[in-house]
Design goal:
heterodimer; A: alpha/beta; 17% strand; B: Heat Shock Protein 90; globular
């Protein structure tokens, strides 16, 4: 039996994440997670359907998320990107969410929800 | 050798310093390859190489072009820029070596992984550079073998 993937909506609900855009895409299942602030690292190692946890909030993260077919990006420490980045993500269909937790805490809680990150 | 009519090609212009549009050419290349049904693992490698090459132009050059080609045998990505060039290519190829500014590093660039990532994901990779003039990368990813 394959376990059902947790969706972004379920994760957002369980961890009180604020949805900044892409609310219509939250039913997408999360395949795994990747936590990193280095874009070369994410480009090389994140996988399709991963949730990406980062403190980077500039607009280039959207291009990285599109290229890697990331399920969604969660910003940590309560950080929020500017309107231009949110608009770009909305246009590209990438959900952006934000958490008041640190990257360590958020990654741990996502792991507890069953989102793992084996490469 | 594939004949000319078997070759798809497209040119992309990249503007140095434009971090807003940075990555868009790579996304388009990825979409084209997806559209013609190229294997996902090949697309993954092309996307990494194209993104890193595009970001290098945005970070270090005034402007540049990506000449993207696909034929039945291989995908070619030639990236040429007008810019500062690379003083020591051997050092630039070493993982962890970067000349990025503090500001770029804060944005999550300048990990010194760009050129090594491109090489790792290419079947053939050549780099030539003239200090004060610019840099040229020639990347080939073959379609009939998975690396």
């Amino acid at each position: 039996m394959t376990s059902k993937k947790i969706t972004l909506a379920q994760a957002a609900d369980a961890l009180h994440l604020k949805v900044l855009c892409g609310s219509e895409k939250l039913t997408r299942g999360i395949g795994g997670g990747y936590t990193s602030d280095l874009l070369s690292d994410v480009i090389a190692h994140a996988k399709k359907d991963d949730i990406w946890i980062t403190l980077q909030i500039h607009s280039n993260i959207v291009a990285v998320a599109v290229l890697k077919e990331i399920a969604g990006v969660i910003f940590v420490n309560g950080r929020e990107p500017d309107d231009e980045t949110v608009k770009k993500a909305q246009d590209e269909g990438i959900p952006l969410l934000t958490s008041t937790l640190t990257a360590y805490e958020l990654s741990g809680k996502l792991y507890e929800l069953g989102i793992h990150g084996q490469r | 050798m594939a004949s000319q009519k078997d070759t798809f090609q497209q040119k992309f212009k990249i503007k140095g310093g434009d971090f807003i549009k940075a990555g868009e050419s790579s996304c388009e290349i990825r979409n084209i390859l997806k559209g013609i049904g190229i294997d996902a693992e090949i697309i993954r490698r092309v996307a990494i190489a194209a993104y890193e090459a595009e970001m290098n132009v945005v970070m270090y050059a005034q402007h540049g072009t990506i000449h993207f080609t696909v034929n039945p045998q291989e995908i070619g990505i030639i990236v040429e820029d007008r810019g500062q060039g690379i003083v020591d290519i051997e050092r630039a190829m070493q993982p962890g070596y970067s000349t990025a500014t503090e500001e770029m590093r804060e944005m999550g660039f300048g990990a010194g992984m760009g050129l090594p990532n491109i090489k790792k994901n290419s079947d053939t990779f050549t780099i030539t550079s003239k200090v004060g003039k610019g840099t040229k990368l020639e990347i080939v990813i073959k379609l009939n073998n998975t690396k």
